[in-house]
Design a protein that fits this description.
There is one protein chain. The protein is of the alpha+beta class and 73 residues long. The protein contains two helices and five strands; from the N terminus they run E-E-H-E-E-E-H. The protein has a five-stranded antiparallel beta sheet. The longest helix is centred in the last third of the chain and has 10 residues, at 63-72. The mean pLDDT is 93.
């Protein structure tokens, strides 16, 4: 069974954060983070890190775009 990847666009980041506004990030499922209004993303250093969910907008993508984004990572 194939799991669909999730992606989000960063809409806010300050200097200390390792994410960039207007950039697309892969989102990892994390139920605990979701309950606390956080989102787990693969940041600019390739590490998974929790950020406030309000700093991102989830974006639905087609399977072709999903594959392209995963290959580009």
């Amino acid at each position: 069974m194939s799991t669909k990847s999730m992606f989000a666009v960063c809409i806010f980041a300050d200097k200390e954060m390792l994410v960039t506004p207007r950039k697309i990030y892969q989102v990892l499922a994390d139920k605990s983070a979701e309950r606390s209004n956080y989102i787990l993303v693969i940041d600019d250093e390739g590490e998974d890190y929790l950020y406030p969910k309000k700093y991102f907008v989830l974006v639905p993508v087609s399977k072709d775009i999903e594959n392209a984004l995963l290959l580009a990572a």
